[in-house]
Design goal:
Keywords: Isomerase
Largest sheet: 18 strands, mixed
Number of domains: 2
InterPro entries: Phenazine_PhzF-like
Organism: Alkalibaculum sporogenes
Number of helices: 8
Protein name: PhzF family phenazine biosynthesis isomerase
Order of helices and strands: EEHEEEHHEEHEEHEEHHEEEHEEEE
CATH topology of the largest domain: Diaminopimelate Epimerase, Chain A, domain 1
Oligomer: single chain
CATH superfamily of the largest domain: Diaminopimelate Epimerase, Chain A, domain 1
Pfam family, one: PhzC-PhzF
Distance between the termini: 6 Å
Length: about 290
């Protein structure tokens, strides 16, 4: 039987919010896992965490991260990266002294982690370079997938398809009340995502619960085995590029509140460093132990 150091960490917490859970498994001392083993472990975590992050040493950078949902390997997981790196940095006096740490990701190459724990109690990650796609889906199809009327989609801003880690369909909603009460059918939305090569769907409103935040978002991710992601790095990074494109945001440090009705909202921070969007937040270790395989 093999054993691995293990943590369950909640990312993007704020106040009493629950954050977004990730499991982190540390492949130390040349320990490895096959694709099938990593997927099996992630399947065992279905309903407990959104993704599992496998962290190992990397010759290119020092750390290598691989991400799995209960359904498949994931190209990039923002909240898992925040969870893993926040916990690693905060528990290591050596890492805590570094302002920047380079990591390697299996699908998105090398990214920079900015340690802002001393001043902001947060770590920030460079968002992958964005790709903008032509939208070929009608507003009627989109409204039907979300189970809302077309007049609930705000015409002031466009619907866009942007990849900044994951291919994200971004949809403006008329107001906060409508936004937080959207409840699509998971299986129907999953089919819509697969049919249109969409990883996640982000809906947003510029009406917010707390005026300290620039926007309110929700993210649906049925492709990865669950309906809603409670706090999202890659989706909100794509949304950051959307806000720049549509003059909602000028690049100053901002925060986004995320979540549906009847919860305390999670907070995702955005900023620009070296002409690139970075996203950030805090994390909390909930479980520390061993995983046995």
């Amino acid at each position: 039987m093999r054993e691995y150091n293990y943590k369950k960490i909640d990312a993007f917490i704020s106040g009493k919010s629950l954050g977004n859970p990730a499991a982190c498994i540390y492949l130390e001392n040349s320990k490895t896992l096959s694709h099938d083993e990593m997927l099996t472990i992630a399947k065992q975590h279905k309903g407990f965490v959104s993704e599992v992050v496998y962290c190992s040493n990397s010759q290119q950078s020092g750390l290598n991260l691989i991400y799995y949902s209960s359904e498949c390997e994931v190209d990039f997981c923002g909240h898992g990266t925040i969870a893993c790196m926040y916990s690693l940095i905060k528990s290591s006096s050596t890492l805590l002294e570094k302002s920047e740490i380079i990591i390697n990701t299996n699908k998105k190459g090398t990214l920079t982690v900015y340690n802002k724990i001393p001043e902001q109690d947060a770590v920030f990650i460079t968002a992958p370079e964005p790709t903008f796609f032509e939208l070929k889906i009608s507003i009627e199809e989109i409204a039907d997938s979300l189970e809302v009327d077309t007049d609930k989609i705000l015409s002031r801003y466009p619907i866009d398809l942007i990849n900044a880690g994951l291919t994200t369909l971004i949809i403006p909603i008329v107001d906060l009340s409508c936004l937080i009460n959207v409840l699509p059918n998971e299986q129907n939305l999953k089919k819509f995502c697969f049919d249109n090569e969409i990883d996640i769907i982000l809906i947003f409103s510029t009406e917010v619960n707390d005026n300290k935040n620039i926007a309110h978002t929700r993210v649906f991710a049925p492709k990865f085995g669950y309906l809603e992601d409670p706090a999202t790095g890659s989706g909100n990074s794509a949304f950051g590029y959307y806000m720049l494109k549509n003059s909602i945001w000028k690049g100053e440090d901002v925060s986004i509140e995320q979540g549906g009705s009847d919860i305390e909202y999670n907070i995702v921070k955005l900023a620009i460093q070296n002409h690139k969007i970075i996203f950030g937040g805090a994390g909390t270790d909930r479980i520390i132990g061993k995983y046995y395989l």
